[in-house]
Amino acid sequence: MALILLGLWLQASETQVGIGWLSWHPSGNQVLFSAIRTKKDWSDYKQKSWLLILHNLETGTDTVLDKDVLFADFAPDGKSLVLSKKQGEQTDLWLRNLETGAERNLTHRPERDSGPHFNHDGTRIAFHAPSSDGIAIFTLKPDGSELTQITPNDSYKSYSPQFAPDSDRLLFYLEKGDNMDQIYLTDPTGKNPVNLTHDQNHNFFPRWLGPNAIAFARGEEGLFRMDLTTGKSEPFLKGKIAFVAYHWESRQLAWFEKTDAGVVLWLATYPGDLVQAKSVWQENQFPLD
């Protein structure tokens, strides 16, 4: 499923840029994303070609934080970064001290640990990883202790957990093997999961728009928005969009879109008129080797 979704970002040119992740720095002045340049047929694809890029919205400059990294998230205080990082044949969660550069392996597991996300106070990290029969959501403390499985051991695949901006409620999407991804919400124990979408569509990459609203991608229809108090959803942004991130404190919405001109990163104030969004990064800015 992940490789299919990444195909949304391939451009019809000799080389193309794919996007694999998008999140905010706590300051609201920088966005973090992963990107890769490949041939259009993926024939030269290599995992190690992914770059983790920090884009400064004030200066327009890019900093490559790491290579061979697809997923990462800043701690709420901005002093550390959790990365899903491959070392040898194993992909673990690593915590990087941004002041010293020191890194610590948090998981030490044979499973592929991916999609990490800090909770609002920095006391837990959620991620997805293979379980006995499928892919499950887990949480742990930033020191690597108290590893807790949130979703059950079954044949289902749960991806991309996101903590609420004000609590430990978890948003994620679930594939039951029927190619109909659905958005779920659960408490931090995982005992009360609720299917928010329950339809026949492909719904994926859910993100919070505040304590009581979410956005999610639906196939190539664009983004949809849901009010959690009413359960009603509606079209939000049209276009080939999958990756969106909202900075609650500054009310800034960022998203990547595949356009005829290539991949574009947009920025807008939300709530507000999204037609007034401005382009802050384009694929021709992809860092050169």
CATH topology: Neuraminidase
Strand content: over 45%
Number of strands: 24
Could you tell me the radius of gyration in angstroms?
18 Å
Number of helices: 1
The shape is: globular
Return residue spans where pLDDT drops below 50 for at least 5 consecutive residues: 1-5, 7-12
| Oligomeric organization of the protein chains | single chain
Amino- and carboxy-terminal Cα gap: 29 Å
Level-2 CATH architecture: 6 Propeller
* Structural category: mainly beta
Order of helices and strands: HEEEEEEEEEEEEEEEEEEEEEEEE
The largest β sheet comes out as: 4 strands, antiparallel
- Count up the domains: 1
Please name the fourth-level CATH homologous superfamily.
Answer: TolB, C-terminal domain
Mean pLDDT: 92
Specify the CATH class.
Answer: Mainly Beta
Helix content: under 10%
Spatial order of strands in the largest sheet: 1-2-3-4
Helices and strands in order:
Blueprint: H1 2-6, E1 15-24, E2 30-39, E3 51-56, E4 62-67, E5 69-74, E6 80-87, E7 90-97, E8 103-105, E9 114-118, E10 125-130, E11 135-140, E12 148-149, E13 157-163, E14 170-175, E15 182-186, E16 194-195, E17 203-208, E18 213-218, E19 223-227, E20 232-237, E21 240-247, E22 252-259, E23 262-269, E24 278-282
Antiparallel strand pairs: 1-2, 2-3, 3-4, 5-6, 6-7, 7-8, 9-10, 10-11, 11-12, 13-14, 14-15, 15-16, 17-18, 18-19, 19-20, 21-22, 22-23, 23-24
